[in-house]
Specification:
about 350 residues, Spore Coat Polysaccharide Biosynthesis Protein SpsA, Chain A, three-stranded antiparallel sheet, 9 helices, glycosyltransferase activity, GT64
Amino acid sequence: MGVYAVAICLFFSLSVVLCLRIPNLSSDIEKDTILLSVCHPGNQPNPRTLRSDQLTVLINGYSESRIPLLQSIAASYSASPVVSSVLVLWGNPSTSPLTLSQLAYNLSVSSWGNAAISLVPQPSSSLNARFLPRSSIGTRAVLVCDDDVEVDMKTVEFAFRMWKGNPDRLIGIFVRSHDIDMTRKEWIYTVHPNKYSIVLTKFMMMKREYLFKYSCGGGSPMHEMRKMVDEMRNCEDILMNFVVAEETNTGPLMVGAERARDWGDPRNEDSDGDGLRLVRDVGLSSRKAEHRKRRGKCITEFHRVFGRMPLRYSYGKLVSSVGEQGLCKKGSNLVLCDH
């Protein structure tokens, strides 16, 4: 009786292990297959054919609760004269085909400008997928952004002009810093009031070549670090900053925004009464302390694999104007005098 019981238990255990592990194995194989295809030189456009007068917008989407906001953001980008196309990279494989079909239709009909909006469903939720050098990207410049951040189009156009003058740099609006905790002797992820070394993918502009370097270059060390991103479900933006800093030995550039609304920021008030609390709470950054700890661990691990710290600090930010900042009374309000 004991022998049969052990045999049944072993068979049951193996069945459970196989059921749990096969989907992960399948996902890994699928990701590797996609990488082999997209990284093949024959699938990359001729650099001489890439447009330099416009950029491609890559919006990362995941949460179905944010779809209305995503549609609004995508439509705004589509209306900009500097945008060639908008690709919505949908990274939630569990979304139903019906929802995806409706989303694809809504996006296609909401193209207010000349830039088409396309939905690109991803086979996995890997954050690395937002940096794939897709053959459909026909511009030299790429804007990587999130589905819960609204930026006015004047700022987008200004950032693009700044990128044209600094095509090897990362350009962004939201910045953070690396630093070292001397007590614990470890790297940390933080915010400094007067310097920065990391641009976030809430709004990150770069040249297309960096997508290829991130996804296809770097050999086994980059493969190891991309795997860390998948395991942590975080830090793809930090790794891109490492890749670019290693290439250029310079820090990113921050541009000032006329209007940038981050609906996922935990500092948003709860009293809007229009469902925006849900938009905020599904964001990864809402769990602030744990979030910073995990990202500090990423910096430490990337430093270990690189063998040095490539991140470089930048200071100040680029602004579109330096108009008068004095306040004047207009009616019953105090406003900027030049407004």
